[in-house]
Amino acid sequence: MKIIACIKQVPDSEAKVKVTENGQVSWGEAPLVINPFDEYAVEGALQQKEALGGTVTALCVGAESAKEALKHALAMGADEAVLVSDAALENLDSVGAARVLAAAIVKIGGADMVMFGRQTLDNGSGLTPPQTARVLGWPMLGWVGQIKVEGGSVQVERVLEEGRQIVKANMPAVLSIVQSIGEPRYPSFMGIRKASKATIPVWSLAELGIGAPAAVVTREAIMNPPTRETVCEIIAGESPEVIAESLAEKILAEKVL
User: Fold this and answer.
1) Which tens digit of pLDDT belongs to each residue from 88-110?
2) Please, what's the b/e burial string for 209-218 (b: 16 or more CB within 10 A of its CB; e: otherwise)?
3) How much is the pLDDT for 225?
């Protein structure tokens, strides 16, 4: 069984979005981490490797710093990692990402299953998995909580708001994994040591044999972003009882209650 887990490096979930003076969105100095939803994709891939044998390759499109996210996947138990990095991919949208990922998957030699997290923490559209499946011409199974391989097909349980749905598709297939797959395992000490010494190949667009995908979605500058004004009033008094009474009167006068 050959499985590819597609991951992305994103700002930490505690990051605060800011709008710069030129109207661009910035995450500030927030640390970059593996997309938390993609950890479930890695976990799902490792579960299938343990059950059926085979290999797991972590694949990422991003800057050179994304090697750290790939090392996280290696520390979890992935066998190999590949980074696609090119200056022409700076303003990549989900359609372009799908085309680049599909080309990288073909260069790797294909796979029985390609797994994604259900969405990314930064953009959160959840469109890259089905768009990648479309480029590859493979079936797409979304919101997967359980996986069972039977011969040349894969049966999954989809976790939907309305309930659970059992569907089946021939492999190779693309899957987007949700939290029901199980809590992602912590990287082991030996896994961390192995990942720290790993050599991660970096492929350019030329090595993939494709040009830079034209952006379908573009972001214009944010002009006149809304501002928030905060007014703080300190209620003083000779005793806690007086302060409490003044506070209660203030709350009633402002019709908070």
Assistant:
1) 998 899 999 999 999 999 999 99
2) ebebbeeeee
3) 64
SS3 of residue 206 by DSSP: helix
pLDDT per residue as tens digits for the range 176-224: 999 999 999 999 999 999 999 999 999 999 999 999 998 888 777 666 6
**Would you give the DSSP letter of residue 29?**
T
**Do 135 and 172 meet the contact criterion of CB atoms below 8 Å apart?**
no
3 state DSSP class of 142:
strand
Q: Which CATH class is domain 2-208?
A: alpha beta
Pairing of strands 32-34, 25-26: unpaired
pLDDT of residue 205: 98
68 contacts 9 by C-beta, under 8 angstroms = yes
Where the chain has pLDDT below 50, the residues are none
Strand order in the sheet with 202-203: 163-170, 153-160, 140-150, 173-177, 113-117, 2-7, 55-61, 80-84, 202-203
Say what angle helices 128-136 and 94-108 make with each other, to 10 degrees.
Answer: 50
Is the full-model pTM beyond 0.70?
Answer: yes
Kind and range of the H or E element at 155? strand 153-160
Q: What angle do CA 40, 46, 49 make, to 5 degrees?
A: 150
Query: What does the domain layout of the chain look like in residue ranges?
Result: 2-208
